[in-house]
Amino acid sequence: MNANFAEAVVAAPDAAAVAALPVPEYYRGAVLLEEDQHMFDDIPIAEREPAKALHLRDVPTPEPGPGEALIAVMASAVNYNTVWSALFAPVPTFGFLRRYARTGDVAARHAQPYHVIGSDLAGIVLRTGSGVQRWHPGDRVVAHCLSVELQHPDGHDDSMLDPEQRIWGYETNFGGLADLALVKANQLMPKATHLTWEEAASPGLVNSTVYRQLVSPHGAGMRLGDNVLIWGAAGGLGSFAVQYALCGGATPICVVSSAEKAEVCRRMGAEAVIDREAEAYRFWRDETTQDPREWRRFGQRIRELTGGEDADIVFEHPGRETFGASVYVARRGGTVVTCASTSGYEHQFDNRHLWMNLKRIVGTHFANYREAWQANRLVTRGRIHPTLSVAYPLADVGQAVDDLHRNRHQGKVGVLCLAPAEGGGVEDPGLRERHLTAINRFRPSAGCSA
Question: Cα Rg for the chain, rounded, in angstroms?
Answer without folding.
Answer: 21
